[in-house]
């Protein structure tokens, strides 16, 4: 599956809903043993106007991630004055541990592809010109094994992940709703768009 | 303690039971402060006919692991169409995190000694000709400290590990029993023995 | 904030209480967005007579740690015959995983600054002559973002951390009280002071 909104692949609710529907359809197809999600353009998600849309959150929903050294991962929620969403406060610590998740989410720092692989945020580093082929090879590696064993093992390893993420998302939404009403959120959105530090007042 | 079934050190129920009995006997001996478990032959566990016997599971029962760069770690359960066992779906994520455990268990990939140490699957990398000596030195390092403090600290850090592993093993056995009846399991065992990808049908 | 007890910055109850009071006061100050805790002298905490005082435990209370390559991290509790304290049996596995925490706490090994950063025990490696400046820059990076979003995100990521650490500290104190009465504890304190291995009897 490929997202066609180059170059920045901005995400919105409709796109997320389309993706979810497509995943559910493929899930019912016995012949489908792995899904490769990619995005047209320079990178999976990027953009000068990047404003904490759920790109990182979406990337963490996949079982595996293949990244180029040029890839950048960031969740800059605190810079725009809100709380992280899309389950990130559960999925990110699950992947890279609570400490590195805290570093990323309290600073809003961008992590490059090599650091992402070293931390476990991505599973494999591939040069940009081999990224698709390598991601396909990883999907094929999973698809090659016995499908019932894959489904059963994956279910065990994910355990209550979907329920936990759902509960965490509810908590995130409550905090986001509260913070979206603050002066600092308005200032943060403006500051990020103008590529300058925000002038925050704690209100 | 040394396992004498070179060169491949195939494991069976009798061997596991003998090991468990020997551990329990040593555990009652006040003079025993550490146990070093090794295997005669090229490596702790290996073999052209490797068919998801509990080698990796057994290695993860120990407190620490010393590995040579030549060591290979794998759990190829999905290739033979069954679910992992021996508590691996708890002990492996506990050591290397849920993400890398998922990569290993959904692909069946072999991990070399260096990667194992980088991921925390092994605690120390030693050249093959110093492996025993280095493992002995690590055991001696633990044995040198105050035994009651070691017992108490180890119990705290393991917490409910034994109970959790037991419960997880029951879940694993249920899934294994179910999958062992499938066509794909029979095909998987054959395919691995013939060193070719399985032709799986999802039944 | 700076601890002025060079060169070894020995810690005692009064110092810990003063630190806690100072943190609480700063916490009430809306203008304070980050606290940098440092120690005068060669290193944050060190000392030839290092006897499992809560230095490592205190360092792990902070949100982030900046370390020089020359830094050394150790919890040598088992060498003096007691159980770790100050919440370390929860905070250390939380940062570096249960396996590396077990290696540190069952061997009492010293970990250098580079290993600490590789394991996630410290977040950043800085040369000794830039340590303060880099720690200040990290604090400033956090302080620059919207304060309400920082507070909210940090609370989510720490979740029940304070409660869990409090409960764990109670367990640690029980084990410490019990072990402090042993012959091996007295021998361990002497042995560490005399820089020799202890002669332990398991009593």
SSE order and pairing:
Three copies of one chain form a homotrimer.
Chain A: E1 2-3, H1 13-28, E2 38-39, H2 55-59, E3 66-67, E4 72-73, H3 88-107, E5 111-112, H4 113-119, E6 124-125, H5 131-143, H6 147-158, H7 161-180, H8 183-193
Parallel strand pairs in A: 1-2, 3-6
Antiparallel strand pairs in A: 4-5
Helix pairs in contact in A: 3-7
Describe the structure.
Three copies of one chain form a homotrimer. By secondary structure, the first copy, chain A, is mainly alpha-helical. Chain A is built from eight helices and six strands. The first copy, chain A, has helices at residues 13-28, 55-59, 88-107, 113-119, 131-143, 147-158, 161-180, 183-193, and strands at 2-3, 38-39, 66-67, 72-73, 111-112, 124-125. In chain A, strands 1-2 form a two-stranded parallel ribbon. In chain A, strands 3-6 form a two-stranded parallel sheet. A two-stranded antiparallel ribbon of chain A has the order 4-5. In chain A, strand 1 (2-3), helix 1 and strand 2 form a beta-alpha-beta unit. In chain A, helix 3 (88-107) packs across helix 7. The first copy, chain A, is globular. Chain A starts with a strand and ends in a 10-residue tail after the last helix. The relative contact order of chain A is 0.14. Chains in contact: A-B, A-C, B-C. The A-B interface holds A 30, 63-64, 94-95, 97, 120, 123, 138, 141-142, 144-150, 152-154, 156-157 and B 77-84, 89, 93, 97-103, 105-109, 171-172, 175, 178-179, 182, 184-185, 187-188, 197-198, 200, 202-203.
